[in-house]
Amino acid sequence: MADKFMSMQNLKFTLNSRDSRFREGDILNGHTPKTLEMVLKAALDIGQKIMHPMFEEMDREPPELDKGRVKVHPGVRPMLGTLGKDGWISATFPEEWDGENMPASILHCINFIFASANYSAAVYAGLTMGAGKLLLTFGSPELQQRFLPEMLAGRWQGTMALTEPEAGTSLGDLATRASIVDVDKGIYKISGEKIFISAGDHDGVDNVVHLMLARIDGAKPGVKGISLFAVPKLRHGEGEKLVPNDVTVTQVFHKLGYRGAPITGLRLGEKDDCLGYLVGDPHRGLSYMFQMMNNARLEVGMGATAIATAAYHSALAYCRSRCQGRPVTAPKGADPVPIIRHADVRRMLMLQRAVTEGSLALILHCGMYEDILTKDSGEAAAKDCHLLLELLTPVAKTYPSEMGILSTSAAIQCFGGYGYCDDFPVEQHFRDMRIHPIHEGTTAIQAMDLLGRKLVMENGRALRLLKQEMEDAVARAKKAGETDLELARMADRLAEALQEVETTVMGLGQVAAEKGPDAFLADASLFLEMFGITVIAWQWLTMASAASEGLAAGNPKKKEKLFYQGKIHVARYFYAYELPKITGLAETLKKSGQMTMDIPDTCFTD
What's the sign of the alpha-carbon dihedral 339, 343, 348, 354? Predict the structure, then answer.
């Protein structure tokens, strides 16, 4: 059953609850509800039959480095073969690459299904797809022909190789070097070291192609001197035979969770024989890589959402079947009741729904912006969607990642002691979740990006656009809630929250003017938390409006009616329990005095 790790009904509702630009426009490339149903069912079939059966095994038997090669679960190779043969890896590519130009919205749905079934398994194809798109966008036709056919077939792995031992988030400090071999052909010798490279080597494929950042000899220091290269583990030699490319796996990191996919260390050019192929123009590598990084940030948010969703469905099933305790008003000698009857258990389940379904809605909304961008929607509309996507990506990455930890923790709590043991899957979900606030830019990096760059883009135009989006949602809710005073009150509360955010932004602007940029960004993570809660409140108002419209649209079947009512109840929960948190955050941001900047180092002694 789908509810083993996710709800198809909820997925389709969330996709279709977007605003009129999505529901009425053809941004799904001709996909009808019928074809969409077929795609999602096919993805669910792969999740259930191929990915989920390996879920525990991939965790219990993690990858190992053996004689220079990383061994992974034997199911990885046939899985990637199926995903390649059936067109899942090439789905977003144009027809000339046997793709379907699949819209981002649908791709996010597919990623949600796969990651709900088995996050570790899902990342292999996702990484290859991202690396392949980078080559398609910026690589020469020769590079595309050299690498893409094998990558899209699932026979070669693609990676994103950025991090180095002394240059993690600070990419301007990277030390990997590129020396010219043939400038006309774009061939360079690569030397250096990379760490934390997801799927950086494994025996589930025949080759690995790293999309790697390096600095060409003589290039400027800092990020402006970084170039992008395709660096394969095996390169084409004489007669197109594959030969080793002097890429050595130094280690496989042993991880808390997300164990089914290897994270590797790599040494490049140890024998002075590692060749890399320049992608695009020299010194523009980081700007190119941001395409893959921004897509990856949305994928990280969706991965966190999917894991927390799977944990929620596991907890929900347990709470319905586990009988323990009685209501305090129950007569003496009454039988124990299912624990879902207890108020605090219901609160924990509500928290999980509020987090997971709100996160899913936000990422699919970002997918809508991505799809509008690819359509001939006019320069102004495309520019607005780009700004909104830039503004919301830090939230879409961070809110599911941070709140997903609390959500999966609540799932464990629902199980009691059993949840802490590996008898049930929620302890693995909790471990798998923890990487997400770190992946693709930590929470602090996302916060500083939001506050220091995204909010001030074009003199704050992105925030003004988001304000208009929220005001449109408020108007829709008030129209849908003409007979529902609670929905109207939620609409008013969102308007108040937006005003609170704007006031906080102006206050932080004053801090910047008086104390400088360091003070301005000191509490950026708190602002991101506040901003994220407000954004998710917007998504819940949108879904509550769609549910109210569904209830008023005739005589829905009993199952649909219960579903719509459930959505409205969760929205009410979010506005009663989660949205009020922004008031405390606003107070801290207003009065903290950026005290963490002034705490002396001596305060951190043992």
Answer: positive
| Fold category of 156-283 in CATH | Butyryl-CoA Dehydrogenase, subunit A; domain 2 (2.40.110)
Distance CA 307, CA 427 (A): 11
User: Coil, helix or strand for 30?
Assistant: coil
Return d(Cα 306, Cα 9) in angstroms, integer.
15
Report the length, in residues, of the chain.
606
**What b/e sequence results for 169-179 when a residue is b if at least 16 CB atoms lie within 10 Å of its CB, and e otherwise?**
eebeebebbbe
The domain 2-152: what is its CATH number?
1.10.540.10
- Distance spanning both ends of the chain, measured CA to CA: 52
Cα separation, 545 vs 396, in Å, equals 21
Domain boundaries, the chain: 2-152, 156-283, 443-595
What is the rounded (10 degree) CA torsion for 604, 525, 293, 377? Answer: -170
440 flagged as catalytic: yes
| Widest pairwise Cα distance in the chain | 87
Q: What is the pLDDT of residues 496-554, one digit of tens each?
A: 999 999 999 999 999 999 999 999 999 999 999 999 999 999 999 999 999 999 988 87
Residue with tokens 């996909």: 31
Predicted local distance difference test score (pLDDT) of residue 23: 54
Query: Is the confidence at residue 380, as pLDDT, over 90?
Result: no
CB-CB contact of 88 with 151 (8 Å): no
**Closest CA relative to residue 124, chosen from 205, 184, 192, 238:** 205
Q: Give me the catalytic one of 299, 370, 427, 440.
A: 440
By the 8 A CB rule, do 541 and 472 touch?
no
**What is the DSSP track for 190-222?**
EEEEEEEEET-S-TTSSEEEEEEEEEETTPPSS
